[in-house]
Design a protein that fits this description.
By secondary structure, the chain is α/β, with parallel strands linked by helices. Helices cover 50% and strands 17% of the residues. GO terms for molecular function: coenzyme F420-dependent N5,N10-methenyltetrahydromethanopterin reductase activity; oxidoreductase activity, acting on paired donors, with incorporation or reduction of molecular oxygen. It holds the Pfam family Bac_luciferase.
């Protein structure tokens, strides 16, 4: 089992650089930086992290093809790979429709968009001249004038069945955006179906559980810290992920309504205990240890400690790191 950490770049850049150094020293293998226009720009952040670390792999987790053309993403991640001396990763998905709508972008044909984006990016990273006419993107003789130097793993992030199948068909790994074992087990099944459909016998596919985590010795503090993240997770939950739960559609709609108004404080208050249980892992470190043990049995190969991490993120990561050696085998 490998472990990674998610950075959300609402933090100051110098704070993230310091945290990245600590994350590397604690032995985490991956850093994923989320990509939303309202935070600090993902590739500027990644460049600084690359220049201030030596071993940890790092990349956008995840970027989308709606706000940035795949050719630009290819150039960006190839540059990151050069800066980091071969440590770049690329996480791709279709983005959060809520945030895309705030800048007038409609999330159309999400699976097709991601599939075509990966096709273009792979070609460019391989040094090819890309001629492509798709449903969503076109390239007419596109080519990078430099090479990234080594294979850059591409991960597809998602929660829905079709996107997860796509991960199995075309990617090196999947960032499974879920925290509950039932959801993650279903996701692994969808990915394996994608592997079969793609005729792939790949045995080193990276099944990444991208968890919403909040760890603290004070359980109430941990749960309170998770409310903001869980509000967004619940608001965009697929209907199929709610089917086996006691969470009511009405409760979810209340959260969505506050988020649409931009009232995060009210959205946090509207998050129910059931939402916290289903969409996050929060409490003492033993709760996370038990969850990781469950996920190992399902076939998960990497666990990402995602936002908010905890009321005091570095202290939470130190608690996790102390237990990680027992979970890595």
């Amino acid at each position: 089992m490998k472990f990674g950490v998610e950075f959300v770049p609402y933090l100051r850049l110098d704070t993230m650089v310091a945290l990245a150094k600590e994350v590397e020293q604690l032995g985490f293998q991956q850093i994923w930086v989320c990509d939303h226009y309202h935070n600090r720009y993902v590739h500027s952040v990644l460049a600084q992290l690359a220049l201030n670390t030596r071993r940890v792999q790092l990349g956008p987790g995840v970027t989308n093809p709606y706000l940035t053309h795949p050719a630009v993403t290819a150039a960006a991640v190839a540059t990151l790979n050069e800066l980091s001396h071969g440590r770049a990763l690329l996480g791709m998905s279709s983005g959060d429709p809520f945030f895309l709508e705030t800048v007038g972008v409609k999330q159309t044909k999400p699976v097709t968009s991601v599939r075509e984006a990966i096709h273009i990016i792979r070609g460019l990273l391989a040094g090819e001249k890309v001629e492509f006419e798709g449903e969503c993107f076109t390239c007419r003789g596109a080519r990078l004038r430099f090479r990234p130097g080594n294979h850059i793993p591409i991960y597809v992030g998602g929660r829905r069945e079709r996107m997860l199948r796509l991960a199995g068909e075309v990617a090196d790994g999947a960032l499974i955006n879920a925290s509950h074992p039932v959801d993650i087990e279903d996701a692994v099944k969808s990915i394996k179906e994608g592997l079969r459909r793609g005729g792939r016998t790949q045995t080193d596919f990276d099944y990444v559980a991208y968890l919403a985590v909040s760890i603290d010795s004070d359980e109430k503090k941990a749960r309170d810290a998770a409310r903001g993240v869980v509000a967004f997770v619940a608001s965009s939950a697929p209907e199929e992920s709610l089917a086996h739960r006691s969470i009511s559609a009405e409760d979810v709609e209340v959260v969505r309504r506050y988020l649409r108004r931009g009232d995060l404080a009210k959205a946090r208050e509207a998050v129910t205990d059931e939402m916290l249980e289903e969409f996050s892992v929060c409490g003492g470190v033993d709760i996370l240890v038990n969850r990781v043990e469950e996920l190992k049995k399902i076939g998960v190969t990497t666990v990402v400690i995602g936002s908010p991490i905890g009321p005091e993120p570095l202290q939470s990561l130190k608690l996790v790191a102390k237990r990680a050696p027992d979970l890595s085998g």
